[in-house]
Amino acid sequence: MSNATRIEESAVAWCVKRERADWSASDQAELDAWLSESTAHRVAMLRMEYGWQRVDRMAALRSSSLSQVAPVHSPYQPDSKKRWLAMAAGFLLVMSLSIFGAQQWMGNGTQRYVTMVGGHETVPLKDGSNVELNTNTHLRAVVDEKARVVWLDKGEAYFEVAHDEKRPFVVYAGDRRIVVLGTHFLVRRDHDRIEVMVAEGRVRVEGVDTTKPLKSAIITPGNMVVSESGSMMVAMASPEKVESELAWRRGYLVFDRTSLASVAEQFNRYNEKKILIEDPKIIDTRISGSFEANNVDAFGRLLQRAYGLSVVDHKGQLWIAQQE
Length: 324
Description:
InterPro entries: FecR, FecR_N, Ferrdict_sens_TM
CATH class of the largest domain: Mainly Beta
GO molecular function, one term: sigma factor antagonist activity
Structural class: alpha+beta
Shape: elongated
Keywords: Membrane, Transmembrane, Transmembrane helix
Number of strands: 18
Helix content: 25-40%
Organism: Stenotrophobium rhamnosiphilum
Domain FecR N-terminal: 10-49
């Protein structure tokens, strides 16, 4: 066996070990020491992490054919640590895997859930936790006696996590990992933008790639994290902000002097009938109030009556402009 192959296999083993619930500070120290030994070690780890993320993306593509909310169980379960490592060795071939093969590798014990545009569902997990999925959300979960891991591939979800000191609850969203023992929190993923808000308890938000100096933070109620393009910001979240961000759980959107452009963007997340603004002069019109997320026609009538705007329903879209 060549030295390069041994390094690749070590990187695979580290990737698999790091996903286990019993990953500790001493394990992290050992990994850091291994990475610092040579550039070849760091490059191998980056290759593995890139491949892992690619498998995530391929799995998400395949899951898009599921129904409104579709839990799908993989056809078999890993029966030993040895089997996990054997599967991980196959990960070295990830660049040549078909979508189906990649799904099988990542899919051991995995349940997948999807909501369509305008969908809203609550999913109970095996550990007693609940996950509430917002519109157009793709999520995968592995929950067993050893680990509790969720991948938020797209969209927004609210987590009510059952307390378990022996099995931290881990959520992966883009390049961020959220680690909790038991709490209530919100995660939204829109491409590479990640938002995390805590309603109860506390969570740790950290980078997935340990070879990059990504900032980490512990957030509690009253704080939120916004992560985008490798950077992360911790901001204050007032009770009003939290209420507004979680209003979708009741089927509503809440705005407080929000621009019409932003309001339209929010409504378009929940409806196949889109709001299209024809006149750039009105995009900064300020909107306040609480609205049913799935009733875009009622909002259109409000724009006509309260704001004096022209609203035309044409080919299944609402076109907004100034009155002539």
